[in-house]
Amino acid sequence: MADRLPFLYLGADTRPGVRVDEFIRDLPKAELHLHIEGTLEPELMFEIAHRNRVPLRFGSVEEVRRAYRFSNLQDFLDIYYEGAKVLLHERDFHDLTRAYLERAHADGVRHAEIFFDPQTHTGRGVPFETVITGIHRALEEAERDLRMSSRLILCFLRHLSAEAAMTTLDQALPFREWIAGVGLDSSEVGHPPSRFRAVFDRARAAGFLAVAHAGEEGPPAYIWEALDQLKALRIDHGVRCLEDPKLVERLVAHHVPLTVCPLSNVKLRVFRTMEEHNLGRLLERGLCVSVNSDDPAYFGGYIAENYRAARDALRLTRDQLLCLARNSFLGSFLSPMEKRGHLEDIDLFVAGPAPEV
Fold first, then answer.
1. Strand intervals (E) in 101-191
2. Interval 289-337: pLDDT, tens
3. Is 182 exposed, middle or buried (0-12, 13-18, 19+ CB in 10 A)?
4. The domain containing residue 170 runs over which residues?
5. Which is nearest to 313 in space by CA: 347, 340, 275?
6. Does a structural domain hold residue 175?
7. Tally of structural domains, the chain
8. Is the pLDDT reported for residue 9 higher than 60?
9. CA 135, CA 151: separation in Å to the nearest integer?
10. Under 8 Å between Cβ of 7 and 288
11. Cα separations (Å) of 269 from 83, 97, 209, 257, 266?
12. Residue 210 phi/psi, 5° resolution?
C-alpha cells in the first residue's frame, strides 16, 4: 500500500495491571475482515423473518444454533445463504448492520471495513439499491453516534461466473461514492482468483481498491494469483502462505496485510485447534497480520473473543496484542493522517495501566 507506515512494537510495562479481558476489549482496534451477512444472529433472523413473513426451516433459535455445528466451508455457506433469505427490505439491511456496529463498538472497534455480498440478495430479486442503501444508512449513523468510521467492500461470489460478477459491478457503479473496494469470497477451492481478472481490472479502473480471499482452504498459489492478477492490496485469510517461503518473503517485503480470522479457521478445520493456529508464527515472521471475526454469528465470536481465544491458546504477549491492533490500522484503507491518529490513540491507551497477562 502506498501510504504504509512503519511497524511499531512497544516494550513491556510493569505498572499495576488491569484484567487482560478488559485490556483486549478496550484496546483501540480496526476490523478488516467482516461479512455483514455473517453477523445475522439467530434472534435477529427470527425477528426479521417474522416481520417479513418468511418461513424458516428452523423451529427455534436453539435449533438454529445447533445447525451452526458445521465443520467445513460448504456446510457453513449452506446455512449462511439460508439465513440471508430473510433479508428483503432496506430496513433489514440497516438493522443487521446497526446491530453489528454496536457490538463492534463495545469491543473497542474504532474503524470497520465491511464486506457485503450483493449477489446473495440480487439473485433472490432484492434490488442492489435496497441492499446498499440500508447498509450505508447504518454506517452513517455509526459515524455520527458512535464516532466509528468505516469503509464498504463489495465482494464477488467466486462460485458464480465472472460474467455475473461483471453484472454486479455494473450495478455498483452508480453507488461508487459509497463503496471503497471490491473483494472475492465464497467457496475457495476450485475457484482461483485468476478467473476474475477482467472484472477486477475494470473495478480498479473505476477507482475501487482490491482485496481477495486467498490461502484459507485454497493453496498458496491462489495468494500469488490474487497479488499478480487481481492486484490485491490486502489478502483476506492468507494463513497458508507459510507453505511457500518465497511468498512469505514477498508479503513481508511489500508489507501486504493479512486479515486472519482465528475462530473461523478453527471452526472450518483449517486448523484442528486454536493451539495449532499459525497466528503466532505469522507475527514472528514479520507479516502484517491482524485479527478479525469473519462471520461471528456463525463462528462463535466477535473480534474481542477472537483476540482472547488467540491470546489464551497461543500465549500471545502484551506486545503481540498491541502489534495486532496496530497492524489493523496500518493494514486499513484509512488515510495516513487517520492511521496516525489511531496509532496515537493506542499510545495513549498503553500509557494507562498494563494488563495482568
1. 109-116, 149-157, 181-185
2. 999 999 999 888 999 999 999 999 999 999 999 999 999 999 999 999 9
3. buried
4. 17-356
5. 275
6. yes
7. 1
8. no
9. 11
10. yes
11. 22, 28, 30, 23, 5
12. -125, 135
φ, ψ of residue 289 to 5 degrees: the values are: -105, 140
> Which string of DSSP letters, residue by residue, matches 92-122?
HHHHHHHHHHHHHHHTTEEEEEEEE-HHHHH
The answer to whether the beta carbons of residues 180 and 207 sit under 8 Å apart is no
Which CATH number do you get for residue 258? Answer: 3.20.20.140
In a domain, 3, yes or no: no
Identified catalytic residue from 41, 90, 188, 216: 216
Burial class (CB in 10 A: 0-12, 13-18, 19+), 6: exposed
Label the pairing between strands 29-35 and 209-214: unpaired
Q: Which amino acid is at 189?
A: V
Asked whether residue 12 is domain-assigned, the answer is: no
- Cell digits of residue 273: 485447534
Nine cell digits for residue 191: 475457484
Angle between helices 318-330 and 303-314 (to 10 degrees): 140
Radius of gyration of the chain (CA): 19
Rounded Cα distance between 129 and 144, Å, is 22
Place of cell 484484567: 19
pLDDT digits (tens, 9 = 90+) for 48-78: 999 999 998 888 888 888 877 776 777 777 7
Query: What residues form DSSP beta bridges with 43?
Result: none
Looking at the domain assignment, is residue 2 inside a domain? no
CB–CB of 211/232 below 8 Å? yes
Threshold 0.90, pTM exceeds: yes
Dig out the grid coordinates for 194 from the structure.
485468476
Q: Is 216 a residue of the active site?
A: yes
Query: Which grid cell sits at 39?
Result: 453477523
